Amino acid sequence: MDPAETAELYKRLGRARRVAVLTGAGVSAESGVPTFRGADGLWRKYRAEDLATPEAFRRDPKLVWEWYDWRRQLIARCQPNPAHQAIAFLERRSQDFLLITQNVDGLHRLAGSIRMVELHGNIWRVRCLEEGKTTENLDVPLQAIPPRCECGGLLRPDVVWFGEALPPEALQEAFDAAESCDVLLVVGTSAVVQPAASLPMVARQRGAYVVEVNLEPTPLTSLANESHHGKAAEILPRLLAFDSAFRNPHSAFEGPGGPCSP
Ligand code: BV8
User: Fold this and answer.
1) Whole-structure pTM value
2) How far is it, in rounded angstroms, from Cα 143 to Cα 237?
3) Same domain for 210 and 130?
């Protein structure tokens, strides 16, 4: 990667007080998790309205759970990739940090991310429709489809479906971070699903330096300060000096002499 391509970002990261990252399905693509809207996207094979809505679940909980069980079995075989690891590395290097993910696959946490919000829930949690209780369920495959709570109530995936409100605390935390961050990295999202897709606009309007990493241009590209097109697992480690920092742990984003010194 041309050093000129990273100089500005290094400088910004070096003096940033608060860093935020927004991720979408593209950050997990190289782990083998299908995206939603790409050529091999999940929505190509299924209509979102048929599966990722409360109405679909009411209509046919077995069909919706068969889709989620298939996704859980696939994700269970996937490991975090260098993009997830680079984001966890950035968190450790940043004074004040928040990862905002739209992904439900749990790979960021496996990669070591701690300060994060999952805007659309998590595919490894289930919620009882009778008691409202949320529990972790790692069964692969599920023991029964649809799964039931000990109380006999139907369990649903603890994810946010279309037409459902996002978890208010997570959403508030995400907008607070977008409004106050100095740098926002936007990685692997088509930026079409609201309200998450509004976060980069809010950050830019508040003066954040917005950097997009995506295979291709998106509706965000025109508002980003920098756009890097390519695979996140290849670009992000280089962009964040993640790989070279491993060899020289005092290099990235630190003090005088590092590549980001003003
Ligand atoms: C809500 C469920 C209101 C879990 C998902 C205007 C304003 C507000 C809302 C709306 C609005 N217009 C329409 C709406 C409603 C709707 C919406 O936004 N619809 C869209 C389609 C127009 N929004 C909602 O319904 C939301 N709720 O607004 O509620 C409300 C308020 C109060 C009370 C009641 C209701 C709920 C949205 C959440 C929906 N749930 N998933 C699951 O099963 O997964 S959305 C689904 O899309 C996933 O969660 C995913 O995270 C999300 C976003 O997709 P992306 O992550 O961006 O993935 P995608 O495949 O699209 O793109 C991948 C990108 O990666 C591509 O750009 C590709 O180029 C790139 N890429 C691929 N490979 C790589 C890569 N990049 C780098 N490297 C690679 N290797």
Assistant:
1) 0.93
2) 39
3) no
